[in-house]
């Protein structure tokens, strides 16, 4: 695992923090003992944010390629295998590369929380927002692992940890819920409504995802009962919406050209799609350029108004124009409405379903949904365009049994997600 200290030092530079308070002669060489100084609280939170941002960008690349959101158009066979639906290959070089970033981010986020909680217990944490932020980054990486992996190992740098196994994946959502709950309580205590809102939305997402993942066992996907109606997720989504107001609220992890090596990394989805041209946006969403490498125009249409979906067009335009520095959405007002819409549909409450769906459609100036198409089809479309490239699509492929046309029979296995990959298996004697 890469050294945590070096990552925090880089985060310090990116954030423009006061390095003199750490008494480091060389700002690129922050020592372990410096991180025990409460003055480093902001830098420690920045380090967690940096590694989580890089990890999310890295793992979204193989995840989205395995879905219909991205299509392989390059020359690397491992991207092709993912495009064909083979997500469980421990030797896939790109999943393997991303795994190391994800493992690093999980460790960094946990350590950041551990250190900042210690500062707070000592009465030395002068900036409690640093801890609030760290709770969010911990929740993001735990939820991401639980959403995208069938197994994981929790090593401590060079000290190996055993794999937890598929049946313990729900515990990772519980950890995310624990972190968001602590963050919400602290944000409320200091009167920071911005972070309270973000964390409420993140807890809604974690609770929803836990209920959804229970339906996605390998080769036992509950396609007969695919809808989620979780009381905790619903309550959090409603509470978050109450604080978001009417704005098109979104919380994103940003990337920056100021620190390309630290934040973006060589595996980022935006870099692979927009710069290396290994993949492009999928055929269901766009018309490609003549060379089949980029987007000529967006084509996926709204099923009610029969025009190019405005939200999808906006997202694709922003993503491609950003080149390697595209931001990544973590939670949004739209996702809160989607959670509540799905819960209403699961209960058979068509009126509430329409209310929640139409709250989203109104944001884009689209005509109200009044039953023009089946409600489930409306939900699937709304999730598809409002959660585009956010790491949600593969689960929907499985539970609604709507698979990408690129998937090859014998390659894909419904309900299967990423494994512990070969680098960790070779380095960790405890992985079974």
Brief write-up:
The chain is built from 16 helices and eight strands.
Structural topology:
Blueprint: H1 4-15, H2 41-66, E1 70-72, H3 77-83, H4 93-121, H5 128-148, H6 169-190, H7 193-213, E2 216-217, E3 220-221, H8 231-244, E4 250-253, H9 260-264, H10 269-275, E5 279-281, E6 286-288, E7 295-298, H11 310-321, E8 328-332, H12 333-347, H13 350-363, H14 375-386, H15 393-399, H16 422-427
Antiparallel strand pairs: 1-5, 2-3, 4-8, 6-7
Helix pairs in contact: 1-2, 2-3, 2-4, 2-5, 2-10, 4-5, 5-6, 5-7, 6-7, 7-8, 7-12, 8-12, 12-13, 12-14, 13-14
Q: Give the overall pLDDT as a whole number.
A: 92
- The first-level CATH class name of the largest domain: Mainly Alpha
Radius of gyration: 21 Å
Proportion of residues in β-strands: 5-15%
What is the spatial order of strands in the main beta sheet?
A: 1-5
Helix content: 40-55%
CATH architectural category of the largest domain = Alpha Horseshoe
The major sheet is characterized as:
2 strands, antiparallel
Q: Which runs of at least 5 residues are low in confidence (pLDDT < 50)?
A: 1-29
Intertermini distance = 20 Å
Shape: globular
Number of domains: 2
Order of helices and strands: HHEHHHHHEEHEHHEEEHEHHHHH
Continuous helix count:
16
């Amino acid at each position: 695992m890469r050294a945590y200290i070096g990552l925090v030092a880089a985060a310090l530079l990116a954030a423009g923090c006061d390095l003199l308070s750490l008494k480091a002669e060389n700002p690129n060489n922050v020592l372990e003992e410096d991180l025990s100084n409460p003055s480093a609280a902001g830098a420690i939170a920045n380090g967690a944010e940096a590694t989580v941002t890089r990890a999310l960008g890295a793992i979204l690349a193989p995840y989205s390629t395995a879905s219909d959101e991205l299509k392989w158009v390059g020359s690397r066979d491992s991207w092709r295998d993912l495009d064909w639906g083979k997500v469980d290959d421990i030797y896939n070089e790109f999943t393997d590369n991303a795994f190391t970033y994800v493992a690093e981010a999980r460790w960094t986020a946990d350590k950041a929380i551990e250190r900042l909680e210690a500062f707070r217990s000592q009465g030395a944490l002068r900036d409690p927002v640093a801890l609030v932020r760290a709770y969010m980054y911990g929740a993001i990486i735990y939820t991401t692992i639980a959403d995208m992996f069938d197994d994981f190992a929790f090593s401590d740098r060079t000290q190996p940890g055993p794999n937890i196994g598929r049946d313990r994946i729900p515990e990772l959502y519980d950890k995310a819920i624990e972190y968001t709950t602590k963050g919400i309580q602290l944000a409320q205590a200091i009167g920071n409504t911005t972070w309270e809102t973000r964390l409420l939305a993140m807890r809604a997402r974690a609770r929803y995802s836990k209920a959804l993942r229970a339906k996605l066992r390998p080769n036992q996907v509950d396609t007969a009962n695919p809808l989620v109606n979780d009381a905790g997720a619903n309550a959090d989504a409603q509470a978050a919406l109450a604080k978001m107001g009417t704005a098109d609220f979104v919380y994103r992890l940003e990337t920056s050209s100021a620190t390309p090596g630290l934040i973006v990394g060589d595996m980022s989805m935006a870099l692979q799609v927009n710069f290396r041209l290994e993949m492009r946006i999928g055929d269901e969403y766009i018309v490609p350029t003549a060379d089949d490498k980029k987007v000529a125009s967006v084509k996926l249409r709204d099923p009610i108004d029969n025009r190019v979906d405005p939200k999808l067009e906006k997202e694709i335009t922003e993503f491609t124009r950003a080149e390697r520095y595209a931001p990544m959405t973590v939670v949004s007002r739209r996702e809160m409405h989607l959670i509540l819409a799905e819960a209403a549909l699961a209960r058979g409450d068509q009126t509430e379903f329409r209310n929640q769906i139409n709250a989203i459609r109104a944001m884009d100036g689209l005509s109200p949904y009044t039953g023009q198409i089946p409600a489930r089809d409306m939900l699937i479309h709304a999730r598809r365009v409002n959660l585009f490239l956010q790491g949600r699509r593969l689960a929907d492929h499985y539970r609604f049994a709507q698979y990408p046309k690129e998937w090859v029979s014998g390659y894909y296995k419904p309900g299967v997600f990423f494994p512990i990959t070969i680098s960790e298996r070779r380095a960790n004697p405890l992985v079974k």
